[in-house]
Amino acid sequence: MQCELCGREVEKLLPVKVEGVEMLVCSNCAKYGVTPKTYSRKPKLGKKSIPRGSRGRRVYRPKRDVFDSLKTIVEDYGEIIREGRIKRGMSIEELARRVGIRVSTLHKIESGQLEPEEKYIRRLEKELNISLYEEGGEGHDSQGTGGTS
């Protein structure tokens, strides 16, 4: 018989697993692989195993609609921001510095040319104590007065 690894003719071949492939090899080439006695398909359990049923099962929850939790910004967000800023007696430069955006960007947001990113919406809401998101989606009018209601 012929060794599948080196090609040498031998009388006795040994079954060995070399890099994931089972081969019949001579005794010299057997050192490059693992014999069937040392590897097995099922892992041996050294410790007491946890019963399969008590292991953390996946809890399947019904999928939520993405659009139910999607917040939408009010249409007149620029006016609300400007009114809130004026009520607090802040200049556009001061509010831009406190929120961490450029004055030109805040000016575009106030004029309605640019919709603010979510992180800036949160900062503006906190700084001016206003709400820029619409409440729900079915017939609710937005608070959007810029005051503390």
Automatic annotation (TrEMBL):
Residues 81-135 form the HTH cro/C1-type domain. InterPro entries: Cro/C1-type_HTH, Lambda_DNA-bd_dom_sf, MJ0586, MJ0586_N. CDD domains: HTH_XRE. Coiled coil: none annotated. PROSITE patterns: HTH_CROC1 (PS50943). GO terms for molecular function: DNA binding. NCBIfam families: multiprotein bridging factor aMBF1. This is TIGR00270 family protein. It comes from Methanothermococcus okinawensis. The lineage of its organism: Archaea, Methanobacteriati, Methanobacteriota, Methanomada group, Methanococci.
